[in-house]
Design brief:
The protein is mainly beta. Helices cover 12% and strands 39% of the residues.
């Protein structure tokens, strides 16, 4: 039986180049440093008006969002129905939670249960990887059970 031949001329696509029009492919590889470079070219980053972000993965029960924040830029207090993790990829951010403040320099990871109010402020130019996870069968936009 003949083995299928691999075309050597095929370029290995990664990140958004690989996923095309969908963010819910079964296998995804992202180059976070290139994605951060792209975010640094957006108006929000260039003018310091707020965070720049890109949704890297979008499934019914999972989102992964890359967020770039200029130094001293903040995201006001908010909460989500999802459980979240926040990983500082570059820079240093500070989160204010009920009753405590958490410093999150590059390389640190924080996990918050659903409904935990928090705000985020960049102490220096920073990039965060935000992961949101819902139980299967719940909608991302409100935690309601699917019919």
């Amino acid at each position: 039986m003949a083995e299928p031949q691999r075309k050597e001329s095929q370029e290995l696509l990664v990140g958004h180049a690989m996923i095309g029009d969908t963010l819910s492919t079964p296998i995804l590889q992202c180059d976070l440093l290139k994605e951060i470079e792209i975010l640094h070219k957006e108006d929000a980053w260039l003018h310091g008006t707020g965070p720049s972000s890109a949704t890297l993965v979008k499934h019914a029960d999972l989102r992964i969002v890359l967020i770039a924040l200029r130094a001293k830029t903040s995201m006001p207090q908010h909460k989500t129905v999802a459980r979240i993790s926040i990983q500082t990829v570059a820079g240093h951010v500070r989160l204010r939670l009920p009753g405590r403040v958490i410093d999150l320099p590059a390389g640190q990871l924080l996990v918050l249960d659903h409904g935990v109010a928090h705000d985020v402020e960049a102490e220096e130019d920073s990039a965060l990887l935000l992961t949101l996870s819902w139980p299967r069968g719940e909608e991302a936009a409100g935690g309601k059970k699917e019919a």
